[in-house]
Design goal:
- The structure holds 4 protein chains of 4 kinds.
- Chain A is of the alpha+beta class.
- Chain A has 2 domains: 51 residues; 140 residues.
- In chain A, strands 1-2-3-4-5 form a 5-stranded antiparallel beta sheet, with helices on both faces.
- The longest helix of chain A is centred in the first third of the chain and has 45 residues.
- Chain B is 58% helix and 4% strand.
- In chain B, helix 2 packs across helix 3, helix 3 crosses helix 4 and helix 4 crosses helix 5.
- Chain B is globular and about 60 Å long.
- Chain C has one domain.
- Chain C has 9 helices and no strands.
- In chain C, helix 3 packs parallel to helix 7.
- Chain D is 67% helix and 2% strand.
- Chain D starts with a helix and ends with a helix.
- The chains are: A alpha+beta, B mainly alpha, C mainly alpha, D mainly alpha.
- The interface between C and D is large, with 42 and 40 residues.
């Protein structure tokens, strides 16, 4: 087969045809993968929620404006047999080392205890701040009620053991939980009804 | 030998002069070595010995088996790197970490480039920064100084450096005044203790937490005076470096003494003196001309203060010198030392 | 203030070459001489800024409203490729001296992942147009800074006899590694 | 042409990373662990094989002057396909690799093989060339990832063999440059010996 000549018409037609086929093919693949992508995203959020509140069979999701601030927090209330078993609150802090927001999911039991926490996103200093995902640090919050467990590192007069060498990341983490708790306390009565 | 061509730094006049300079540097470090042994005891001896032996071993082994070139182990440069590396780490650093540091200093930062005179970066500093980033916990837990002839049982074995403590407290929202007066309550080794930033006399003598060689400003200055008199180092870099740190921190201090501490504090802490006199003056990795050296010192000073005041690391000397090391070739290009018989370019 | 943070971050803290790993090929390939690295950086500055503006507009006014963001990669690369061509042609016409200075670097830029990378980062970080422009310019300066420092060191190394096995690319990479190590001191500045 | 030679050249003799020094950005960026390196390598292999095949099939239909833009469109399409598939089915890897998946499009290896090989050779040769080069790329990335993960995290493919901390620098950017530098030096030495 002879090589096509580089005439203007040929060039335009070729590019047009190639781009057309490519767009069609991509459109097809996009439609095929749309559902799996949606499910994958859902699964990720659901996994975090499942980790922080115990067995539930129904979720109710709504956003809440915290007392001070223009931002909003996402509340995921888990119900089992129509009874509230826990609330997962997605919270954040901008006070870490890295400009990237620290995002966490905190689960509260109906009586306001912290059930568990999961770090969804963080880019703290590797080897130091990143230890906020380690069980050793996270587990000290489990079962505590922020009413009498002060969410500050010990050197600031609180009850939290800071990560060695990463006081700032630890403070940010505590701040994120505090933000979630404050909002939760405010909304608690409404949720229970 | 063609006397008219100027090669890259340093100007090697012969084996003898390198040897003389290197052993002169070692001699100048003796006061600081003695102070470190006084305050940290056998630990200091251990760190120094391991670092020196490891550096010299790697230098010898790489030259003998990998490069297969002439052995320069006796020129004293590996000895200097070994001592400087030890000076830049805490006295309780595990042996294997010191050995990794020595390998990085000699193997990566020096021998990969062909050995003495070819390395663009200060080997000991590369080793130190490598360790600092790799082992943040081990590299920032500082044994409290415990004078040799007045040993006592300490309420806590480790404590922070003055700069490190200041930085963490400032980011916690306290003011300089409050920190200096009331100290910091902290949990060390499971016990609650009060940490007070030492006063300037103590800091000058070296009675504070820190790396082996950075603690005693007085000892470092004695060594520096010796090196200046013997013309082992020139005045340009130290003066520009210290001057820019004083001016920069002074301006910040005048603006708001509540969040910026005074220049004197910056001068006596965080290994500034060690860096200024013993590492920023390293002739291999710094500019050749006096003007270039002034710019080099100025850059070091500014970067040091920027990192100390706004960065994540409380101490910026090592990073600042390494970054300016990278600028050295460009500075050399801009400020060439005068050549004899050079024809003006058209 | 926002802009200052973007600038410091892009030049020092997350330098595009040393921390984001973008534009490594020209970083290693064209950094042999200080003068060429300046030319390359100039060309990158030029293309990166225009490309970021155009791709931002496409993303905001075409891809997102029509829900066809999956065409992002293909449209961005086409824009950049044709942009480079256009810049070349226009430059040749209006400013021959500038064309002579930057011309030979322009074709290399199509496959310089820094340009596409910055365009993609601008979109994924939800910058507005002005922030995007600031980010692109600062990134280009960060690229230039890394190139310049690196070229200086390599010119210096050319005079030295580096061990045989390490000569060329290996020693260049090790040098880049140490440079990246030094730049890590800027962590936490913003 | 000997197809076995055609296939195997990508591993050592003409390895895209160690010898041709192409595609270094993703090589350095995603190799903080062996599994990320392998994932990136395989994604690139897919694009390389597909674009090589298509280019060799339609090489005679494309006028010379629009050759490069056409190739770019073809490559970008396959990159997008990989992107969508990964986002749907391996979301964790998709997030770890980040913008370096769309950046496959400017990976010089892909365009280089399309332009330098597939636009001149037969379909089968192009397919094998793409497969060999792609797997060679994947091999290099996995090797680099394994070394960095072992030194920096004390594990390989997530399997921890050292408890506690390792030498953290190696999973950060300085470690990427340094390890690749020494791997290339080592390979140069090895090649000279054989």
């Amino acid at each position: 087969m002879a090589k096509k000549e580089s005439s203007f018409l040929n060039m335009v037609i070729t590019l047009f045809v190639i781009t057309g086929i490519a767009s069609l093919a991509l459109g097809g693949v996009y439609n095929l993968t749309k559902e799996p992508i949606r499910l994958a995203k859902l699964a990720k959020a659901e996994k975090a929620i499942k980790e922080v509140i115990p067995g539930f069979d129904r979720l109710e999701i709504f956003t809440v404006k915290p007392a001070n601030g223009t931002d909003s927090l996402v509340f995921n209330c888990g119900y089992k047999n129509n009874e509230l078993v826990g609330t997962a609150v997605e919270s954040y802090s901008n006070k870490g080392y890295d400009p990237t927001q620290i995002k966490i999911m905190v689960g509260f039991t109906p009586d306001g205890n912290i059930n568990n926490t999961v770090v969804i996103q963080q880019k703290e200093t590797p080897g130091l701040g990143t230890k906020m995902t380690s069980p050793k640090f996270k587990n000290q919050f489990v079962g505590k009620n922020p009413k009498n467990f002060i969410l500050k590192v010990k050197r600031d007069g609180g009850d939290v053991d800071a990560i060695t060498g990463a006081t700032i990341s630890s403070r940010a983490f505590c701040g994120a939980i505090q933000r979630a708790y404050d909002a939760y306390e405010k909304e608690n009565k409404k949720i229970k009804q | 030998m063609n006397l008219l061509t100027v090669s890259g730094s340093p100007h090697i006049h012969g084996d003898n002069s390198i040897k003389k300079i290197m052993y002169g540097v070692v001699f100048a470090m003796i006061p600081a070595i003695l102070v470190s042994i006084y305050f940290f005891g056998l630990d200091a001896v251990k760190v120094l010995l391991i670092s020196v032996i490891a550096c010299m071993f790697f230098e010898w082994a790489i030259q003998k088996y990998l490069i297969k070139g002439p052995l320069t182990i006796n020129d004293g440069s590996a000895l200097v790197t070994g001592i400087l590396l030890a000076f830049n780490v805490p006295s309780n650093l595990p042996v294997w970490i010191i050995i990794i540091g020595a390998f990085v200093s000699i193997g990566i930062a020096k021998m990969s480039f062909g050995g003495l005179g070819k390395n663009p970066f200060n080997p000991a500093l590369v080793g130190r920064v490598f360790l600092l980033i790799s082992f943040p916990v081990q590299m920032t837990s500082w044994p409290k100084p415990n004078p040799l002839f007045a040993r006592k049982v300490l309420d806590a074995i480790t404590g922070p450096t003055p700069l490190g403590n200041l930085k963490e407290e400032l980011t916690g929202g306290r003011t300089v005044q409050d920190i200096l007066e009331h100290g910091t309550k902290m949990i060390v080794d499971g016990k609650e203790v009060l940490y007070q930033i030492p006063d300037y006399v103590q800091e000058l003598l070296g009675n504070m937490g820190g790396s082996l060689g950075e603690i005693s400003v007085a000892a470092l200055i004695i060594g520096a005076i010796y090196m200046l008199c013997r013309k082992i180092i020139t005045w340009q870099i130290p003066v520009a470096y210290l001057g820019s740190v004083i001016v920069f921190t002074g301006i910040l201090w005048l603006i708001n003494p509540n969040i910026y501490i005074n220049p004197l504090f910056h001068l006596v802490t965080g290994g500034l003196m060690l860096g200024v006199f013993f590492m920023a003056t390293d002739m291999v990795s710094t500019p050749m001309s006096p003007k270039g050296q002034l710019i080099f010192g100025l850059g070091c000073g500014i970067i040091t203060v920027i990192i100390r005041v706004w960065g994540a690391y409380p101490e910026g000397v090592s990073f600042a010198i390494l970054i300016m090391n990278a600028f050295a070739p460009l500075i050399n290009k801009g400020f060439k030392p005068k050549r004899f018989g050079e024809v003006a370019k058209k | 203030m926002e802009y200052l943070i973007i600038i410091i971050s892009a030049i020092f803290v997350s330098n595009i070459v040393l921390a984001q790993y973008l534009g490594i090929c020209p970083f290693l390939g064209v950094s042999g001489k200080v003068s060429t690295s300046v030319g390359m950086s100039g060309a990158v500055l030029f293309v990166m800024t225009i490309a970021t503006i155009v791709t931002w507009l496409i993303q905001t006014y075409i891809l997102e409203p029509f829900g066809i963001t999956f065409l992002q990669t293909i449209s961005f690369i086409l824009v950049i490729a044709s942009l480079v061509q256009m810049v070349e042609i226009i430059l040749k016409k209006i400013s021959p001296p500038l064309y002579q200075a930057l011309g030979i670097f322009l074709p290399l830029i199509t496959t310089n992942c820094a340009v596409l990378g910055v365009a993609l980062l601008t979109v994924s970080r939800n910058y507005n147009l002005m922030e995007g422009v600031v980010f692109a310019v600062a990134s280009a300066f960060g690229f230039g800074l890394a190139m310049l420092l690196f070229a200086g060191i390599r010119e210096h190394l050319d005079l030295m006899d580096v061990p045989k096995g390490m000569r060329g690319v290996p020693i260049a990479l090790v040098t880049a590694g140490i440079l990246a190590l030094a730049f890590m001191g800027f962590i936490g500045l913003v | 042409m000997n197809q076995w030679k055609n296939f195997s050249k990508g591993f050592i003799k003409d390895n895209p990373v160690f010898v041709l020094l192409l595609g270094l950005c993703p090589t350095l960026a995603v190799t903080s662990s062996a599994i990320n390196g392998l994932g990136m390598g395989l994604a690139t292999t897919f694009v390389l094989v597909c674009s090589n095949m298509v280019v060799s099939l339609i090489k005679n239909l494309i006028p010379d002057k629009v050759r490069i833009p056409s190739f770019i469109v073809i490559i970008a399409s396959f990159v997008t396909i990989v992107e969508l598939i990964m986002e749907g089915f391996v979301p964790a890897l998709f997030e770890a690799l980040g913008i370096f998946i769309p950046l496959i499009v400017v990976n010089c290896i892909v365009l280089g093989r399309a332009e330098g090989f597939a636009s001149k050779q037969s379909f089968i040769s192009s397919l094998i060339d793409g497969l060999g080069m792609g797997l060679g790329f994947a091999f290099a990335l996995t090797l680099l990832g394994a070394v960095r993960e072992a030194l920096g995290n004390g594990s390989i493919f997530g399997y921890k063999f050292i408890e506690g901390d390792a030498i953290l620098v190696f999973i950060l950017s300085p470690g990427a440059f340094i390890v690749l530098g020494y791997l290339i030096a080592l390979l140069n030495r090895f090649k000279k010996a054989t």
